[in-house]
Design goal:
With 44 residues, the protein is mainly beta. Helix content is 0%, strand content 45%. Strands 1-2-3 form a 3-stranded antiparallel sheet, with no helix packed on it.
């Protein structure tokens, strides 16, 4: 699935943005210029 989140300038390195794909929260992280996305939930 592809989901447009925001312009890359709005997510500088070291920041995170939470977005929703339907009912699923997704954390999008910029870690040193590389983007990662994981489900926004506690795994404990």
């Amino acid at each position: 699935m592809k989901l447009d989140v925001c312009p890359i300038e709005e997510l500088p390195p070291g920041h995170v943005k939470i977005v929703y794909a339907g009912l699923v929260g997704i954390g999008v992280y910029n870690c040193g210029g590389t983007l990662y996305a994981i489900e926004d939930r506690c795994s404990h």
